[in-house]
């Protein structure tokens, strides 16, 4: 992280919604990722829903706690395209998903995630797929129980390290740019509908070249 961005974060109210959006969701907003989690204070829940209502980003609540609400932010057409890849479909089937339509997957995932938060079941690792992680890394994490990874950054990497490191660097650049914009006074509409977010090519999330043998 560059020195000027570090100073901005040090001197900024990190509870502010715009700054949290920059810190948590820059890869999605920059068009580098199909989705991001966005965890906010429950008092901001309805505000978040209003912010994204007129954008091409869907804000779906996946869990509501007493103090925090967890959203999955995603562009439907991009996440659906990712989920339609053969490796992703195979891994979802292996994890017990009989329906692969995005809304069906989200419904079952939210049920499982809620049970996990209530300590009734283990963590649902299919979250990695809903976040657009490379399927080889999601599968590698599961079978290695989170160990033996090549690198850990935005996620634990088990495959294609060189390409993923390049992608992580792009994520960091996007985050720094977004933090600077917020610090310069950019409004929510400027953040959500940035020129980068209008691009339709999502890089670094392909699952089609991963030979998943289950």
Description:
Helix 2 (about 15-30) runs antiparallel to helix 9. With about 210 residues, the protein is mainly α. The strands form 2 sheets. It has a 3-stranded antiparallel β-sheet with strand order 1-3-2, with helices on both faces. A two-stranded antiparallel ribbon has the order 4-5. The protein contains 10 helices and 5 strands, in the order H-H-E-H-E-E-H-H-H-H-H-E-E-H-H. Helix content is about 50%, strand content about 10%. Residues about 195-210 have low confidence and may be disordered.
Strand and helix map with partners:
Elements: H1 3-10, H2 17-29, E1 35-41, H3 45-52, E2 58-64, E3 68-74, H4 76-83, H5 86-94, H6 102-117, H7 127-130, H8 135-143, E4 151-152, E5 156-157, H9 161-183, H10 188-192
Antiparallel strand pairs: 1-3, 2-3, 4-5
Helix pairs in contact: 2-9
What can be said about the biggest beta sheet? 3 strands, antiparallel
* Mean pLDDT rating: 87
Shape: globular
Q: What's the helix-strand series?
A: HHEHEEHHHHHEEHH
The class by helix and strand makeup works out as mainly alpha
Q: Which segments are poorly predicted (pLDDT under 50) over 5 or more consecutive residues? A: 197-210
Portion in strands: 5-15%
Radius of gyration: 17 Å
Fraction of residues in H or I helices: 40-55%
Question: Helix count?
Answer: 10
List how many beta strands DSSP finds.
5
Please report the distance between the alpha carbons of the first and last residues: 39 Å
Oligomer: single chain
With strands numbered from the N-terminus, the spatial order across the biggest sheet is: 1-3-2
């Amino acid at each position: 992280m560059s020195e000027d961005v570090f100073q901005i974060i040090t001197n900024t109210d990190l509870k502010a919604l715009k700054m949290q959006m920059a810190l948590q969701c820059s890869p999605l907003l920059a068009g580098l990722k199909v989705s991001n989690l966005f965890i906010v204070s429950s008092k901001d829940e309805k505000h978040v829903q209003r912010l994204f209502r007129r954008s091409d980003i869907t804000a779906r609540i996946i869990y509501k706690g007493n103090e925090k609400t967890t959203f999955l932010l995603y562009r439907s057409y991009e996440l659906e395209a990712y989920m339609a890849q053969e490796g992703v479909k195979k891994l979802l089937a292996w994890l017990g998903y009989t329906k692969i339509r995005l809304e069906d997957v989200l419904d079952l995932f939210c049920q499982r995630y809620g049970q996990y938060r209530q300590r009734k079941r283990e963590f649902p690792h299919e979250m990695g797929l809903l976040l657009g992680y490379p399927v080889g890394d999601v599968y590698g994490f599961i079978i290695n129980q989170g160990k033996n990874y090549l690198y850990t950054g935005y996620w634990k990497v088990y495959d294609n390290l060189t390409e993923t490191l390049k992608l992580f660097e792009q994520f960091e650049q996007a985050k720094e740019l977004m933090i600077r914009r917020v610090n310069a006074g950019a409004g929510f509409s400027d953040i959500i509908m940035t020129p980068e977010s209008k691009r339709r090519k999502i890089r670094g999330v392909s699952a089609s070249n991963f030979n998943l043998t289950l």
